Amino acid sequence: MMPAALGRRSGSQLLSWTQDTIVAFPQASPKPKRKHSLLPVLIVLFLISYGLMSLLAVEQDRTIAAQRSLITSLLGDSTELSSLKGKLIQKQYAQAQAQAKAGSRSQAHAPSTQPPITQDTPGGTAQNSHSTGKVRKTVPPRPPLGIADLVDGRRILKTI
């Protein structure tokens, strides 16, 4: 009866060698079929985002280097322009002094029929014009204050 009993029994049941009893193993519950895992997709997305972030860092570095070189170039141009403006102002000042000296020499040689111009100073004494070598700049008059200027709160001085 043993060989026939073995043939009829399924693989999850075993016969005991000592007795004719059947020992049954609990069958594992059938696992539900797992859906596709998202882990590979997430890994691919992570690698793509990491690559894009690295590309962004490299492009920012290039942009910063280009801006640095542009700023350096502009600084050099600015200093050169400032020196040219300084030289131009010095030339204009030298020409103005030369004209003032030439004008004072021509006035000294030619007899003047006009009396010298005198100015009252705060000390109460009259002086000739300051210096014949210096050219006085005229100060433009202040514009008249309008109603908008009186009301403008940004221009009001507040002191404590």
Give an overview of the whole structure.
The protein is mostly helical. It contains three helices and four strands. The strands form two sheets. It has a two-stranded antiparallel sheet with strand order 1-2. The longest helix has 71 residues, at 39-109.
Keyphrases for this structure?
3 helices; two-stranded antiparallel ribbon; 160 residues; rod-shaped; mainly alpha
Give the biggest beta sheet. Answer: 2 strands, antiparallel
Strand arrangement, major sheet: 1-2
Counted beta strands: 4
| C-alpha end-to-end distance | 118 Å
Which structural class is indicated by helix and strand composition?
mainly alpha
Unreliable stretches (pLDDT < 50, length at least 5) are 5-10
Percent helix range: 40-55%
CA gyration radius, whole angstroms: 51 Å
Mean pLDDT score, rounded? 75
Overall 3D form: rod-shaped
The oligomerization state is: single chain
How many separate helices?
A: 3
- Helix and strand pattern: HEEHEEH
- In percent, how much strand structure appears in the residues? 5-15%
